[in-house]
Amino acid sequence: MARLLRFFLGLLGGALVTYILGTAVNAQFVMNAHDVPVTWGDRLNMTLFDISNMLPYLVIIAISFLIAFLIAALLKRFLPKLANIAYPIAGAAALGAALGLMYVMFQTVPISGARSTLGFLAQMAAGGLGGWVFGRIMTTK
């Protein structure tokens, strides 16, 4: 029971970290794409606005992580040398797969800051950090 609770707390923690970081990075990429000077106050306002208004992205992240972390947990049993990096890799792959599936479904990436290669990689890095958080929570006793 405690392991299941840690799994869901880890999933929630990793998804929240990824969501907050990914949304904040997305806001910066969007503002930088227009080559218009933006004040620090406007950057903060837009970042906070995006964090409070992109909640469907949090749901997508959580579902992607659920699938990816279950697969990673299974693979860790067969490949124990990958145990330390399994969840960060799974988190990054989950975000890459989710963004790719969104592109297939909508013929665009709704997370506009992820439309460039660097923006896409930044979202995957946020997923990797979320996977690391998940792994830390899972191994905490």
Give a brief description:
With 141 residues, the chain is mainly alpha-helical. It is 80% helix and 0% strand. The protein is built from five helices and no strands.
Write up this protein.
The chain has 141 residues and is mainly α. It has one domain. The chain has helices at residues 2-32, 40-53, 55-78, 86-106, 117-139. The protein is elongated, with a radius of gyration of 16 Å. The mean pLDDT is 94.
Q: Biggest sheet: strands, sense, closure?
A: none
**Number of β-strand runs:** 0
Find the structural class using helix and strand composition: mainly alpha
Q: Termini, distance in Å?
A: 13 Å
Mean pLDDT: 94
Please give the radius of gyration in angstroms.
16 Å
Count of DSSP H/I helices: 5
Q: Helicity range of the residues?
A: over 70%
Q: How is the topology of this model organized?
A:
Elements: H1 2-32, H2 40-53, H3 55-78, H4 86-106, H5 117-139
Question: What are its keywords?
Answer:
141 residues, mainly alpha, 0% strand
